[in-house]
């Protein structure tokens, strides 16, 4: 039964990441349910979803657009340094503290899922498709993106939509270009975070391969269904899952 739960979670996680995001919610819940400690569950789920991030970054490589205030070199450094710092903080966090933080982190990510799309639509409506005037100064953009990358290295849940909202504040309005950049930064910071997790020996190898394989399969299926499933319906489902998980962890 444990293996079946993990396989289903990997498939659903990969599918959700392909069409809307939030796949790490599912993998974290499944791993904790089968008895994996919270920190190891978070690290293992992140590692299992890494191939999907890399594939997405490669797929959207031609669509990448960079904020006017930050260069590619800056973005790579921020992603790598932020991801490693976040992963390092995770390794120094006790299981008890992290378990108490999980529902709050899930609520933060769920709030981002709710507010993010509205924020992006408002930004596009105010500035127009061809405008790249930043709402933030370069130093503010640098600090904000660094904080998001540290968050991604620490927890990873809801990272994509938080990044998209950040890019909107930096002046970007082209959703294809923003998605390309989101995938690149997600892949970079997740890759370095997984290296830190592995060095800290917090990845559960027992379920990693199955979870990763099923996530890849789910990603392909999700990509095929992306244009057939209502995005509002998917986002509503993810919000419900996020709130239910937060409530479950609070009660636990």
Automatic annotation (TrEMBL):
Location in or out of the cell:
Cell membrane
Q: Which UniProt keywords apply?
A: Cell membrane, Membrane, Transmembrane, Transmembrane helix, Transport
What residue ranges are annotated as transmembrane? 28-54, 75-95, 101-120, 141-169, 181-200, 207-227, 233-251
Known InterPro entries for this protein?
TM_pro_TauE-like, TSUP
Give the main localization category: membrane
What family does the Swiss-Prot or TrEMBL record give for this protein?
Answer: Belongs to the 4-toluene sulfonate uptake permease (TSUP) (TC 2.A.102) family.
Name of this protein? Probable membrane transporter protein
Q: Which organism is it from?
A: Shewanella scandinavica
């Amino acid at each position: 039964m444990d293996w079946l739960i993990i396989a289903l979670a990997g498939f659903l996680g990969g599918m959700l990441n392909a069409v809307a995001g939030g796949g790490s919610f599912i993998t974290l819940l499944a791993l904790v349910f089968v008895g994996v400690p919270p920190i190891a569950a978070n690290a293992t789920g992140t590692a299992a979803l890494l191939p999907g991030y890399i594939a997405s970054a490669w797929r959207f490589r031609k669509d990448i657009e960079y904020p006017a205030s930050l260069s590619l070199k800056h973005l790579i450094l921020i992603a790598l340094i932020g991801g490693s710092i976040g992963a390092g903080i995770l390794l120094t966090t006790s299981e008890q503290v992290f378990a108490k933080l999980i529902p709050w982190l899930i609520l933060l990510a769920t709030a981002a899922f709710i507010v993010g799309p509205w924020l992006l639509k408002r930004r596009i409506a105010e500035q127009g498709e061809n405008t790249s005037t930043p709402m933030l100064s370069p130093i503010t953009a640098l600090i904000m993106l660094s904080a998001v990358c540290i968050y991604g290295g620490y927890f990873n849940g809801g990272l994509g939509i938080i990044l998209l909202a950040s890019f909107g504040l930096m002046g970007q309005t082209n959703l294809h270009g923003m998605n390309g950049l989101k995938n690149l930064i997600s892949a970079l910071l997740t890759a370095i975070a997984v290296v830190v997790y592995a060095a800290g020996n917090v990845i559960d190898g027992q379920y990693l391969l199955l979870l990763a394989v099923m996530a890849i399969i789910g990603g392909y299926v999700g990509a095929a269904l992306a244009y057939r499933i209502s995005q509002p319906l998917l986002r509503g489902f993810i919000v419900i899952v996020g709130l239910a998980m937060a409530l479950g962890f609070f009660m636990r």
